[in-house]
Specification:
The protein is mainly α. The protein contains three helices and no strands. The termini are far apart.
Length: 67
């Protein structure tokens, strides 16, 4: 059998650690994950793309409202 690549294992471990850290912050504030997300406000996708260096990314602004 071919084992998982080492980079994949490390990245999954890193993602799990970040999620654990975020959960601890949320718990320390006495909030649920949904309350924490709502408190953070709307996401500025264009600013996030600039911060990550995604200069060729196109942000599509939909006029339809999510149900």
């Amino acid at each position: 059998m071919n084992p998982k690549p080492r980079w994949e294992t490390r990245s999954l471990a890193w993602i799990h650690q970040i999620r654990t850290d975020i959960d601890q912050v949320i718990r320390a504030q006495g909030m649920t994950p949904a309350e924490w997300i709502k408190k953070r406000g709307p996401l500025d996708v264009e600013a996030l793309c600039r911060k990550l260096g995604l200069t060729a990314a196109v942000v599509v602004k939909s006029h339809s409202k999510a149900a």
